[in-house]
Specification:
The structure is a single chain. By secondary structure, this protein is mainly α. It has a single domain, classed as Up-down Bundle (Rhomboid-like fold), CATH 1.20.1540. The chain has ten helices and four strands, in the order H-H-E-H-H-H-H-H-E-H-E-E-H-H. The strands form two sheets. Strands 1-2 form a two-stranded antiparallel sheet. The two termini are 30 Å apart. The mean pLDDT is 85.
Length: 254
Amino acid sequence: MQSGNSFFSQIPPVTKNLIIINLIVWLAMFILPKHLGTDLADFGGLHYISASDFNPAQFLTYMFMHDTRSFAHIFFNMFSLWMFGMTLERTLGSARFLFYYISCGVGAAIIQELAWMLTWEDTMVKVLANSNNIDFPEAKAYINQLLMTADGKEIVGQWLNMFVTIGASGAVYGILLAFGMLFPNAPLYLFFIPVPVKAKWMVLGMGAIEVLIGLSEAAGKSDGIAHFAHLGGMIFGFFIILYWKKKGSFNGYY
């Protein structure tokens, strides 16, 4: 600010434009449904691959959409993108940073799809059993019967639309992972913790938490957050950074 530059001009271009795009889409999700009569997440949110509303473009579009019922969802994602993305973009370069961000977001979507593949039937059985007041074996037998016919598969495909994920969290978790790998000893000050925590311990702690919550979610204790997508962003980010480090892209400094 002292040099005469504005706050926004000091944000690297990719980080700045990603934040702007996410905010524009978030505002559009407020306004357009009133005119279109439908939720934009039905088109752009990530659906399970067997759902009737699924299309391949959702692997990309979902990461630019956020929950309009709470400002916290987009705020914390964009705050993390701004806070850590600026440093990473200046370190990696804008083109490589954009490739990394998108790759982590797509990787998060792939892992989320795999998680749904392993859990959707049990979840659907529980929903069907509870909503119709029948026992689990009867509900499972009914779904298996539906899957044997084309019309039944279409019905199940419509039911599978209940599985939808939106948000930049997967890509953001990839950014946090990269920061922890490239700047492992950087001190970070976290809420409610009076002493600084090294970046590497923060990343390891966040990964462990996501694994534990993800496993409990797979056991049927869902909190509505795509924890496996978070892990997917970190997993893909880990291998990308590891490849770049082995390739010598960082000149051996980190």
